[in-house]
Amino acid sequence: MQARLLNRETGDLAPHDLTKSITTDLFHTFAPAPHHRFNGEVSSVSSLDDTEERAHRIRAHGAGVSGLALEKFDGRILVSGGSEGSIKIWDLEETRNQNQRHTFRPVSTIARSTGGRRGGGHSHGITHLGFYPFDPDAFLSSSYDKFLKLWATKRSALTAEFDLNATIYSHAMSPIADHLLVACATQHSNVRLVDLKSGSAVQALVAHGGPVLCASWSPRYEHILASGHADGKVRIWDVRRAGGVIAQLDQEDSLGVVHRYRHATASGADWIRMPHFRGSAQAHDEAVNGLTWTDDGKHIVSAGLDRKIRVWDAVSGANTLASFGPLIQNQHAKTAPMVVTPSGLSSSRELLVWPNDQEILILDLHDGDVITRLRSPGTTNPVGPRGGEMGRNRITTIVWRGSGGGTGQNGSVMGGGNSVGGIYSAHLDGQIRAWMPQIPGPDDIDETEEVHEDEEKRRRKRKAVDSAYRSLMGTQITFTGR
Question: Which parts are the WD repeats (predicted)?
Answer without folding.
Answer: 58-100, 205-240, 281-322
